[in-house]
Amino acid sequence: MSTQAKSNEKCAQLPGRLVIVGFGSIASAALPVLLQRLDVAPEAVTVLCTPSDDTAIAAENGVRVVREPLTTSNYEAVLQRFVDTGDFLLNLSVGVSSEALVRYCWSRGALYLDTSIEPWGESASDVQRPLSHRSNYALREALLAFRLDKRDGPTALVTQGANPGLISALTKQALSEMAGHHHVDIGRPVSSGDWGRIAQQLGIRAIHVAEQDTQCSAQRKARGEFVNTWSVDALIEEGMQPAELGWGTHERHWPADARRHGFGSDAAIYLTRPGFATRVRSWTPLGGPYHGFLISHGESISIADHLTLRDEGEVVYRPTVHYAYRPCDDALLSIDELAGRGWRAPDRRRILRADIVGGRDELGVLLMGNERGVYWYGSRLSMDDARCLALHNTATTLQVVAGILGGMVWMLEHPRAGIVEPDDIDHRTILDAALPYLGEMAGTYGSWTPLAHRLPLFDEPLDPDDPWQFLNIRVP
């Protein structure tokens, strides 16, 4: 059966109502796909959003819109009118606390999914708070603490978009494919320890979420304008968080600006500088070598944590994991201007959608350290293909929507799984639902290393004996 045919079939039934919090670029792109693929009537869907959100797509699909933004003081009162036992809350907002909504849904017996763990907006922008407390690591640890005695209850799947989310499924699929190439019998891995042993056996030392976005519009970025192919607010928020990465056991050069959190799993560290001011070297098969931003993302922490192996309590294996993001050209210019303005965001913001005239989003995982070379596995989705597969989408938004759909399908099959992360769940269910929307899927070996083709123009700190040291990957 063709991919297009599969994308027209219903793949799960919602037993109750669907409430979508926020209606920015991702929610407006997701709504038509969810109505097409999930068995839910438009009259059973409610959008809760801000007065400024463009809700034309919601109106076009016959969905009720309630313009009441959730705040620390009103969220319980507002949600009581719309969310009850058996309903599904899909949080696609910025600046609304994921932990608060998870706790609320748990108390009401409702299902919950988000694409990132969000704090309340005023908390995220409070520069007086310690850097560690403004990190994705701290947000994740708070939810992990809440779930300790709540394994059996309404499912809450946190951080299930493209990355974080889908990328965890792609990591497991990449490890499975590499194991097949090396004739490694992996059986049917179930636990995190199983996947950690596979990664260790394959010699994986570092993992990048390696993404290059080349989508472009005929209208170039203007001065004083921030342009992006998805949420401007969300990109600025995460780019201004401290850079974070899962810290591998093979690392032998501690960064001068690195800090440990001093609590929790200790699977990740943070740098005392924002992700927008931290560059790393990476590679994708079509885009080739590039410098990307080390943006803080939840998957950098969760993948590293789940692949950790211990022997009598001592960590014996963990790869270094982080995002290496090259956004579209206009977003690059926007970030450069943002830095020049002292990190003060401009008032004018534009999200590229229908005006995109070409390009693609090449999003995948880059696994490094194997003797055969680096292995990239992921989605190569062009703008033209995205338009054919789903209305109101760009290549970037559709990759996120595919992750959301996959997560919702898994949750509806497992409605009493408690609070889970993408790394906890079966990647095959996620990919079965997501693949029709991801364009060309490719797994490719390459000879790239961060030391390759480096002209000796400067006296850079390097470790020539081990290319996979973060010292070599980071751009000084």
TrEMBL record:
Pfam families on file: Sacchrp_dh_C, Sacchrp_dh_NADP
Annotated ranges, domain Saccharopine dehydrogenase-like C-terminal: 161-443
Residue ranges of every copy of the Saccharopine dehydrogenase NADP binding domain listed in the record: 19-157
Bilayer-spanning residue ranges: none
Protein name per UniProt: Homospermidine synthase
Source taxonomy: Bacteria, Pseudomonadati, Pseudomonadota, Betaproteobacteria, Burkholderiales
